[in-house]
């Protein structure tokens, strides 16, 4: 699959520290398949390289949305680009969440830090197809309020009666009226019971480590807990095997895996 040119139509600085920016892209040539929530794409900057970024937009949305943490060669180059620049977009890649399997079930989305990206795509999809799903809950935590992404949307989502949205920060902050506490603690208090429910969890390893036992305690079976892996990868197509976890390739078999699938793989992810 080749990289196609895409124009950066809009850039939003998401966090107070300026380290996360959202890029709204529009492919300008050729047709790309619509992305499924949970998939990723390779973004490239000429002369710098290419890196995998989760697709934060739902398939019906106008732009392809990517929220990017400035950390290394490619993401630093992306952060320096102005609106209107053309970059390379290769995707969608990977499997995405099996959302058809979740119909009629209660769904809890659990996000920590900027790993919310593909869960934003999932939530926007679920709200568009709201009647097909049971209760929808999102638990989203950041270290402080200035690090929460998609603030305008969070405000809108909080007004909805068909969504339970719980925002939390690690410690009290001036003006903060939401919850205070780590994501696992909040999950224990507000998540639905595991019966007829699925949990999608994206966040830093420490959050995942402490959230999984709570979900299991609430009765979620490993088949109904989904994680998204972020192994370093190169081709994104299952050819170079750079991102393997035992026999599984994160780029092709993932990045979304159920906990039961991960339990069958070597613990090297
Ligand atoms: C499926 C998937 C989805 C992702 N989604 C997002 C997303 O939505 N938003 C986002 O911001 N990021 C996302 N990432 C992470 C992103 O792809 C990486 O941070 C990527 O490395 C950034 O590329 P870079 O060239 O800017 O950084 P790099 O130059 O690759 O450096 C990134 C970091 O890794 C360190 N590093 C460099 N080389 C190595 C090495 N060989 N081994 C270990 N560490 C090394 C660097 O010191 C630096 O801290 C995703 C990754 C995957 C696999």
UniProtKB/TrEMBL annotation:
<dbReference type="InterPro" id="IPR012165">
    <property type="entry name" value="Cyt_c3_hydrogenase_gsu"/>
</dbReference>
<feature type="binding site">
    <location>
        <position position="235"/>
    </location>
    <ligand>
        <name>[2Fe-2S] cluster</name>
    </ligand>
</feature>
<dbReference type="InterPro" id="IPR017927">
    <property type="entry name" value="FAD-bd_FR_type"/>
</dbReference>
<dbReference type="Pfam" id="PF00175">
    <property type="entry name" value="NAD_binding_1"/>
</dbReference>
<dbReference type="InterPro" id="IPR050353">
    <property type="entry name" value="PyrK_electron_transfer"/>
</dbReference>
<dbReference type="GO" id="GO:0050660">
    <property type="term" value="F:flavin adenine dinucleotide binding"/>
</dbReference>
<dbReference type="GO" id="GO:0016491">
    <property type="term" value="F:oxidoreductase activity"/>
</dbReference>
<dbReference type="GO" id="GO:0006221">
    <property type="term" value="P:pyrimidine nucleotide biosynthetic process"/>
</dbReference>
<keyword id="KW-0249">Electron transport</keyword>
<keyword id="KW-0001">2Fe-2S</keyword>
<keyword id="KW-0479">Metal-binding</keyword>
<dbReference type="GO" id="GO:0051537">
    <property type="term" value="F:2 iron, 2 sulfur cluster binding"/>
</dbReference>
<dbReference type="InterPro" id="IPR037117">
    <property type="entry name" value="Dihydroorotate_DH_ele_sf"/>
</dbReference>
<dbReference type="GO" id="GO:0046872">
    <property type="term" value="F:metal ion binding"/>
</dbReference>
<feature type="domain" description="FAD-binding FR-type">
    <location>
        <begin position="1"/>
        <end position="99"/>
    </location>
</feature>
<dbReference type="Pfam" id="PF10418">
    <property type="entry name" value="DHODB_Fe-S_bind"/>
</dbReference>
<feature type="binding site">
    <location>
        <position position="240"/>
    </location>
    <ligand>
        <name>[2Fe-2S] cluster</name>
    </ligand>
</feature>
<keyword id="KW-0408">Iron</keyword>
<dbReference type="InterPro" id="IPR019480">
    <property type="entry name" value="Dihydroorotate_DH_Fe-S-bd"/>
</dbReference>
<feature type="binding site">
    <location>
        <position position="243"/>
    </location>
    <ligand>
        <name>[2Fe-2S] cluster</name>
    </ligand>
</feature>
<dbReference type="InterPro" id="IPR017938">
    <property type="entry name" value="Riboflavin_synthase-like_b-brl"/>
</dbReference>
<keyword id="KW-0274">FAD</keyword>
<keyword id="KW-0411">Iron-sulfur</keyword>
<feature type="binding site">
    <location>
        <position position="251"/>
    </location>
    <ligand>
        <name>[2Fe-2S] cluster</name>
    </ligand>
</feature>
<protein>
    <submittedName>
        <fullName>Oxidoreductase FAD/NAD(P)-binding domain protein</fullName>
    </submittedName>
</protein>
<keyword id="KW-0285">Flavoprotein</keyword>
<keyword id="KW-0813">Transport</keyword>
<dbReference type="InterPro" id="IPR001433">
    <property type="entry name" value="OxRdtase_FAD/NAD-bd"/>
</dbReference>
<dbReference type="InterPro" id="IPR039261">
    <property type="entry name" value="FNR_nucleotide-bd"/>
</dbReference>
């Amino acid at each position: 699959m080749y990289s196609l040119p895409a124009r950066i139509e809009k850039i939003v600085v998401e966090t107070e520290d300026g380290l996360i920016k959202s890029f709204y892209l529009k492919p300008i040539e050729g047709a790309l398949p619509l992305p499924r929530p949970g998939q990723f794409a390779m973004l490239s900057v000429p002369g710098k390289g290419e890196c995998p970024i989760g697709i934060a937009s739902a398939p019906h949305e106008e732009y392809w949305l990517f929220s990017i943490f400035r950390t290394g060669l490619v993401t630093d180059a992306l952060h320096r680009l102005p609106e209107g620049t053309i970059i390379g977009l290769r995707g969608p890649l990977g499997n995405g969440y099996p959302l058809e399997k979740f119909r009629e079930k209660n769904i809890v989305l659990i996000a920590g830090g900027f790993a919310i990206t593909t869960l934003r795509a999932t939530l926007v999809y679920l709200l568009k197809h709201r009647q097909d799903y049971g209760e929808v809950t999102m638990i989203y935590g950041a270290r402080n309020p200035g690090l929460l992404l998609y603030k305008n949307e969070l405000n809108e989502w909080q007004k909805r009666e068909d969504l339970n949205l719980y925002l939390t920060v690690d410690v009290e902050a001036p003006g903060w009226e939401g919850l205070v506490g780590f994501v696992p603690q909040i999950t224990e208090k507000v998540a639905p019971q595991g019966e007829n429910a699925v949990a999608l969890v994206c966040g830093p390893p420490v959050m995942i480590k402490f959230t999984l036992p709570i979900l299991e305690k609430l009765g979620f079976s490993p088949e109904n807990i989904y994680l998204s892996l972020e192994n370093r990868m190169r081709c994104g197509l299952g050819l170079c095997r750079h991102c393997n976890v035992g026999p599984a390739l994160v780029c092709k078999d993932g990045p979304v895996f159920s906990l039961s699938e991960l339990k069958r793989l070597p613990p090297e992810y």
